[in-house]
Design a protein that fits this description.
There is one protein chain. The protein has four helices and three strands, in the order αβαααββ. It is an alpha+beta fold. Helix content is 53%, strand content 17%. A three-stranded antiparallel β-sheet has the order 1-3-2.
């Protein structure tokens, strides 16, 4: 059963939440490491795991599915040329969330999200 398996709302409307997750995923795939709050990092991690798993198909359909999730041709090319080569033998666990510290202004927990 899939009861209570939804996503975190992050205090945002759906369109803003999806934009935040998509932009976080683009930044992670481009820079390999980003800092953000712990809850946001976990949600972006879930999204990136799905992207990399779909990209491992490495055909036209997989490329279109990844483009549908990222909406950026440059990042899609990075995924298919660089990133899927790193994870050929790995079935999951492509990202790592490491606690970094506390943000000074509002005491939010900051984490580092990185590709393994």
């Amino acid at each position: 059963m899939r009861h209570r398996n939804g996503n975190k709302k992050l205090g945002l409307p759906t369109d803003q939440r999806m934009a935040l997750i998509r932009n976080g995923a683009k930044s992670l795939l481009e820079h390999r490491q980003i800092k953000m709050t712990a809850t946001r990092a976990k949600e972006v991690s879930r999204y990136v795991e799905k992207i990399i798993t779909k990209a491992k198909g490495n055909d036209v359909h997989a490329r279109r599915e990844v483009f549908k999730l990222l909406q950026d041709k440059k990042i899609v090319d990075i995924v298919f040329k660089d990133i899927i080569d790193l994870y050929k033998e790995r079935t999951s666990g492509y990202t790592r969330v490491v606690k970094y510290g506390i943000r000074r202004g509002d005491a939010a927990s900051i984490s580092v999200l990185e590709l393994v």
